[in-house]
Structure formats: structure tokens, C-alpha cells
Amino acid sequence: MNQMTPEDYEELIALLDGRIDELTKPIPSKQIRRFAEAIRSARLGDEHSAATFGEDDYANLLQAQLIVDEVLPRIMENIRAHSIDGETGWRFQPVPAGNGDADLCAICAKPFQHFGMTVKVHCLDMHPDAYHGVCRECVRQYAPLEFVESYGVEEWLMRNTKVCESFETDRKREEERVNLIDAIRTHAHTTYYFNDIVQKAPKWASGAFGEWR
């Protein structure tokens, strides 16, 4: 049996390092997009043709879906937050509308509503002159210290600490309650019928019990 030379060891180490990099380093975003486009082109299949993916693929696809649902929103949130110019991208201003500044946060995409005063930002995917509202949590987490300490923002944050006050003593039940409210508000803000949906939510939600479809 031939003995390995120092050159053989170096070559083996290089191969192993390359394989470790392949398995552990995140793939480029363009490649992720190509994967997504490839999935979108998959055939669902019918009585005349076979589907692109079958039962053997289910576990892999389910795991991929869970990972994307968990991680991708946080990645996008971080990118949007760090795209905001520290000097010109943050504004603290009065709310002109009587029903408040209510929509989905420009950074985390979760629903929020402010009355009186609000914080607006300019993110990378917005029109140059467009500023969009952000929730208090994102202001606390991402706003530059100079901005928080100026224009009364810090006082504004301290004055509204119980906007999302807990109702349930059980942590899991409270988390589910907040998730339900977020889901209702998120859906409402994707339409022009926010007030109608909020007002009729209990009546409409009664159809969730019993047979459906």
C-alpha cells in the first residue's frame, strides 16, 4: 500500500475544506432566487401527466418550507432596517389622519397603529420621496441613538409602553392571541376594507366553526 506524501495530505485537506464550505456556507441570494423560480415551474400533475415532485420529496419540501418561513422574514427585516440612512432616513412627525397611522411596519412587516405622533422611515425598496411608518419595537431595535434621543422620540417610546399589553397570564395563550390579532390586522391592511373587516370580524369569524367546504 502506497504511503501518502505531504502533497497528498494537502490535496485531501483542500478537498475536505471545499466540501465543508459547500455544506456550511450560505448560498448566494441569486441562487436562492433561481431555486424559487425552479420550484414555481414544477408540474402539479393530473390524470394525464406525472407531477415533478412525489411522496419521496415531501419530507424535504416540508423542511425547506419550515426553514424559509422561519428565517427569510428575519433576513428581509434586517436588510430593510440596515438600508435606512441614519441621518435622513428616519422621521418623527405628527399623524395627519384622525384614524391614526395604521398599516404594516416598513421594517418587520407586522401591523401597527400610532396616534398623535409616529415614526416613518425610507427603506431601499421605496420610492425616493416615500416614507412609511414603522412599529415601536423596530424603532427601539433599529433606530440610531441620535434619532431616539432627539425630537422627543425617547419620551414617545416611554409613554406608550403598554400599547400591546398582555391579556392572558399563560404565555402560550397570550402569544396565540397576539398572533390572531396580527393575522386579522395583516389581512385587513392588504385590502381597502380595514374598518369593515375589524367591525365585522366577530360575525364573519363565526363561520370558522362547523363544516367548511
Commentary on this structure:
With 213 residues, the chain is mainly alpha-helical. The chain is built from eight helices and five strands; from the N terminus they run H-H-H-E-E-E-E-E-H-H-H-H-H. The chain has a domain at 61-165. The strands form two sheets. Strands 1-4-5 form a three-stranded antiparallel β-sheet, with no helix packed on it. It has a two-stranded antiparallel sheet with strand order 2-3. Helix 7 crosses helix 8.
Structural class: mainly alpha
Report on the biggest sheet: 3 strands, antiparallel
The number of helical segments is 8
Helix content: 40-55%
Question: What is the spatial order of strands in the main beta sheet?
Answer: 1-4-5
Helix-strand string: HHHEEEEEHHHHH
Separation of the first and last Cα atoms: 70 Å
Task: Please render the helix and strand layout as text.
Blueprint (H helix, E strand, L loop, with lengths): L5 H19 L4 H12 L17 H25 L7 E5 L6 E4 L6 E4 L2 E5 L10 E2 L2 H7 L2 H4 L4 H7 L11 H18 L5 H12 L8
Antiparallel strand pairs: 1-4, 2-3, 4-5
Helix pairs in contact: 7-8
Describe the structure using short key phrases:
3-stranded antiparallel β-sheet; 213 residues; mainly alpha; 49% helix; 5 strands; two-stranded antiparallel ribbon
Give a quick rundown of the structure:
By secondary structure, the chain is mainly alpha-helical.
